[in-house]
Amino acid sequence: MYVSRAAPRTDCIHLKNLMDELFEGYSPEVLPRCNPLDSVQVQLGLAVRQIVELNEPMQILETNTWVRMVWNDCQLTWNATETGIKNIAVPYRRVWVPDITLYDNAQNALGGLQQYRPNVYPNGDVYYNFPSVIRSLCKVDVTYFPFDTQVCKLQFGSWSYHGWDLNLTGMTSAADISMFVSNGEWDIIGVPAERNEIKYTCCPEPYPDVRFYVHMRRKPLFYLLNLIFPCSLISTIAILGFLLPPESGEKVSLEITVLLSLAVFLLVVSETMPADSETFPYIGVYFACAMGLVSLSCLMTVTVLNLHFKGEFGKRMPPWVRLVFLDWFGKILLVKTTDKLTQYENIKAQKTQAEAYENQGFPGLSTADKDSNYNDPLDAEHRTVTTSVLSDHRDVKMADLKGVKFDYNTSTEVVSLLKKQLDCIDKIQDHMEEKRRESLGMDEWRKLAQVVDRIFMVFFFLFQFGISSLILIRIISADPDVMHFYSAE
Known about the structure:
This protein has twelve helices and eleven strands.
């Protein structure tokens, strides 16, 4: 049996011969410079492909990038006309590659650096382009969250060679973002680059590096719909606590429920933000102020409830309180108030006690007393109760008088008994009038509680609106392009 083998192609033979010739005696560990006084010129470029994630609590930026490096290796040159080979891709370990390192790296090494093949050209230029997922440390400033912009620095440099051996420069003045894939949370504004030299105290040689500054702007729509809008709505619901009647018994419960809801939202914000004491987001200030306002509303509600039930203890309202709150603020806040207690006391003062009895020996009321009793509109609702009680009481006393002979000998005893009966009637009437006065006093305190409740509601609304406007103005004044940028989108 004969096995036929195809003849090798000429270009493959030329490529193998060229590889053997180029790497004969070549050492990838030696710095590729033909003149000892010259430094190897390395150009570094970056293409930002995608922003994978910005972890604010960990302060780590993860990006998908394409790293581009160019340098000249004077030992890897050939005549392209003779060989017909314009470039070759060589394994990473067979050629010298600069040890470019990401200084603020959050992982062990620059990903992809040792996994791809550099391309070598006839004049000795070596192009090494490889993709890499970079996890770098990034100082996050969340002062204006979620309307914030972040700048993350990517600093590249050689860890082993100083500037006299390896001179690192940037390819362009900015990274390439033409192939950028849009992110759901971040928009990229630009990635400018700059070269910098640092001299450390340990060494006199300079150490050059190239820094790329990734400028990102957050898309706030997600946080507006899921964080800020619910918080504002819950804070607004706290106003309903001032409109709730005190008799319902739910005013304090509603305010405490709102306070707990805001505490949950503040906890969500704190979990999203880094544990940093240098900067604090304005949205956190807003939540803290909202919680303070709701806590203050709880105190206001307790004050209103105290005023509402204060009349049950029989305490009189000071005249200046009636004048300021019921007369002035009551009219401004459209709370209808009537001074029934003062009217009642004025009518009561006009009544006179009976000072004499009728000629027949029966005690009676004077004409002024009768007129005041039966013409008083404030006592109409209690007159029926008083008449009923007196009629029952009169029947009992008259039963005791049956069998008494009304002569001149017993008239003194009858008059004494009738006086006691009238004294009992006066006490019952005084008791009913005292109850009426207490009822009118409680109405005054309830009206005062309603007026104070309206005052607190207006104060709460103005304070909340002022804090929200102040924070929004502060954000816009610090970055005037925030609203313009999102309105343009």
